[in-house]
Structures are given as structure tokens and as C-alpha cells.
Write a structure and sequence with these properties.
- By secondary structure, the protein is α/β, with parallel strands linked by helices.
- It is 33% helix and 15% strand.
- It contains twelve helices and ten strands.
- It has a ten-stranded mixed β-sheet, covered by helices on one side.
- A hairpin with a 4-residue loop joins strand 8 and strand 9.
- Helix 1 runs parallel beside helix 2 and helix 3 packs across helix 5.
- The longest helix has 22 residues.
- It binds iron/sulfur cluster (SF4) (2 copies).
- The site of one iron/sulfur cluster (SF4) has 10 residues, from helix 12.
């Protein structure tokens, strides 16, 4: 295969490049969450041997970046599913990624975690286990299924007893946004070590939840509340690009380095269970498949990834915005929302950005 040597790292003036892979090992799952991005198709999963080989391929890519770009790469792989514990080679994959020098995190629904699993996570040096929490019991169960709240908290207790960092992830919508404070309290009292909030993306099963998207004003107020609850002993955060406007950690005016904001095309990539590579799982657009091309080739040559890196591709306000280097909006929300309105466009404005007035944004208060 042709070797690829372009300058492929966005913002290469930085000394350490944090790069993550969100790796969906399986689509199998014991739950049927209302907002799930899955479309319930079950593509042919990569075997354990294939996954191990692709971890080696990713590691070789990181090493090549380091030697060719004179930069230190800090790679992490976040294994998820479906429910990743249902993948037959789960523990072999985790062990291999750790031996390859990658930071490893696991995103699970928490229902199956045993004491033995918790000890294995600790012994393998898994730096974080993320267990989703949607709000108080009735709200959590209404989104994730009856009985799941109790099962989740039992799993969290086991992980916490083993000394694992356990973060909660909450998908924000009109269903649970009134309960942010209560949800943070539940997480604090249940053994979680921090909590993160992300936005509902109306795709997959979540397409039916378009009406549950928070309006621009609502999302701003929710993020203000979230950051008022953050404290040194319990992190309450959001990785949402829009949160930069509340946190205030934007790049200085005139700085065009893309060091933060939406990671799609810049600092992370998603691999699905059949080897399909996507800019982000929530975007759901294929940029190649590992069964046909190496991850390095895909990252360096995909037209879609290069368009994501180019400000000129972005339409409307996002393309002109002075916060583009530190934000770019959530491309997944922009894509899903524009598609729901019959004009699918990965580079449309983020409809929930409160800096944008009018247009097709989510404005109901
Ligand atoms: S206009 Fe786009 S880039 Fe600017 S703050 Fe809003 S979502 Fe972010
Ligand atoms: S598209 Fe949205 S969910 Fe995906 S990386 Fe960007 S901000 Fe995060």
C-alpha cells in the first residue's frame, strides 16, 4: 500500500497531541435506550484477532506521527459497544491495548459489572470506566429501561470499591434537564468520581426525540448550572463544544489553532464493530473501513475528514465565527438536525448555539 506522509496532525505546533479512539467492539446490548444512536442493524463484528491487529496498526500510526512530526502523542482508546462486556474477546483486547502503551477507558451501561470485573479493570490499569446515568430513578428507567437504575448503581458501587475512577455520562434533553442538580447529587452519593454532560443527538433511535432537543436558551442555562456545580472534589463538566462559551477557555482572538472544540476530524475517531471508521459515532458517516485501508491512510486521506479541518467548508455562522478554532459546534447535532429538516448537511450551523439568532435553530423556550 502507498505510504502516507502528509502533515496529518491539526494544530501541530503543540508539544503533546492527545488523540483518542472510541472503539465500538460490538452492537450487542442488553438495553434499548430511547436516545441510542444505533439503528438496530447488526453488522459483522471484527474478530478478536482483527481487533488486536488494528490496535497494533493504530500504535504504529502514533509512533510514525511522533518520529515524523517531532511531537509526543498521548493516545487513549475508549472501548464501548453496544455493551462492550458482551464482546467475547473483551479482556484480551483491553490487555493488548494496555501492553501497546495506550491509555484505556471503558464505556459501559454498568449492568453486568461484577466484583471480579472491577478488580480486572484495576489490575489492567484502566484509567476510567464511564457508566451512563440519565437522572433520578424514574427518569433513568424511562430512558434506559425498567430496573436499569438499580443495576447501574450496583455496578458503580463495585467499581468504586475496587478503586476505579467512575464517571457518569448524562445525555441532556428536555426529559432530564430539569434534574441536573439532583442527578449530580445522586452521582456524588453513589460512588461516581465525576459527571459529564453531553447533548442528545437526534439520530438512530433518538430520531424520534427531535421534540426533546433543548432550545438555545435552555442549553445555555443548563451549561451555566452545570459549571456552577463543578468543584475540586467532584468534577461536573461537559465536553460539548458549546460549553467553551460558559467555561470561557476560548483561544485568544486571531489564534487559528484548533486545540479544542468538536474533535471530529481533529483529535479523535470512531471505529465501529465491523471496522467502519467515522469522524464521530454520533455523526454516523463512514470515512473508510479497516478491512480495506489502514487507519493511518484513512486519517490522512479521507475527503470528509479534510473538509472537517477546513473552515471554508462550514456554512453560515459557524464558518464566520471567531470561536470556530475552539468550537465548530457539534457536527453530529448539526447533521442530524439538518437531515431531520430534509437538508442533510454535515457543515450546517449548530442549531442549538445561542450565538446564532433566527434560521432553523431550536428556539422554543
Ligand atoms: S456559531 Fe458555531 S462555532 Fe460559533 S460558537 Fe456557535 S456553534 Fe460554535
Ligand atoms: S460531533 Fe458532537 S459528539 Fe461528536 S465529537 Fe463533535 S461535539 Fe462531540
Amino acid at each position: 500500500m502507498k505510504e502516507v506522509k502528509e502533515n496529518i496532525i491539526a494544530g501541530s505546533a503543540i508539544q503533546t497531541f492527545d488523540f483518542f479512539i472510541q472503539w465500538h467492539l460490538t452492537e450487542r446490548c442488553n438495553l434499548r435506550c430511547r436516545h441510542c444512536y444505533q439503528d438496530r442493524k447488526m453488522p459483522p463484528e471484527m474478530s478478536t484477532d482483527e481487533v488486536l491487529r488494528e490496535i497494533d496498526g493504530a500504535t504504529a500510526m502514533f509512533e510514525a506521527w511522533e518520529s515524523e512530526q517531532n511531537i509526543r502523542v498521548s493516545p487513549s482508546i475508549h472501548f464501548t459497544g453496544g455493551e462492550p462486556l458482551l464482546y467475547p474477546g473483551f479482556w484480551d483486547v483491553l490487555r493488548h491495548a494496555r501492553q501497546a502503551g495506550c491509555g484505556v477507558a471503558v464505556m459501559t451501561n454498568g449492568c453486568f459489572v461484577t466484583d471480579e470485573d472491577a478488580r480486572r479493570f484495576r489490575d489492567l490499569g484502566v484509567f476510567e470506566v464511564q457508566v451512563s446515568l440519565e437522572g433520578p430513578e424514574s427518569h433513568h428507567d424511562s430512558i434506559r429501561g425498567r430496573g436499569s437504575f438499580k443495576a447501574v448503581l450496583e455496578g458503580v458501587e463495585r467499581l468504586s470499591k475496587a478503586g476505579i475512577n467512575v464517571s457518569a455520562n448524562v445525555t441532556l434533553s428536555r426529559i432530564n434537564s430539569p434534574f441536573v442538580g439532583e442527578t449530580v447529587k445522586i452521582a456524588r452519593d453513589s460512588g461516581y468520581t465525576g459527571i459529564g454532560f453531553s447533548r442528545l443527538v437526534p439520530c438512530g433511535s433518538g430520531e424520534n426525540l427531535l421534540e426533546c432537543l433543548l432550545s438555545r436558551d435552555e442549553i445555555r442555562h443548563v451549561y451555566e448550572e452545570i459549571y456552577s456545580l463543578n468543584s475540586p472534589d467532584f468534577e461536573v463538566v461537559s465536553g460539548d463544544p458549546l460549553a467553551v462559551m460558559v467555561r470561557g477557555d476560548v483561544q485568544p482572538p486571531g489564534c487559528e489553532l484548533t486545540l479544542s472544540g468538536c474533535s471530529a476530524g481533529f483529535s479523535g475517531v470512531t471505529i465501529s464493530c465491523d471496522g467502519t471508521v467515522m469522524p464521530c459515532r454520533r455523526i454516523g458517516v463512514s470515512v473508510g473501513n479497516l478491512r480495506r485501508k489502514s487507519l493511518r491512510q484513512i486519517w490522512a486521506t479521507s475527503k470528509t475528514l479534510w473538509k472537517l479541518r477546513n473552515r471554508a467548508s462550514y456554512k453560515g455562522k459557524c464558518g464566520e465565527c471567531d470561536l470556530w478554532p475552539s468550537c465548530r459546534g457539534c457536527r453530529a447535532v448539526a447533521y442530524a438536525h439538518s437531515r431531520a429538516h430534509g437538508r442533510a448537511d454535515l457543515f450546517a450551523d449548530d442549531p442549538q448555539c445561542w450565538r446564532i439568532a433566527g434560521g432553523e435553530g431550536v428556539t422554543r423556550g
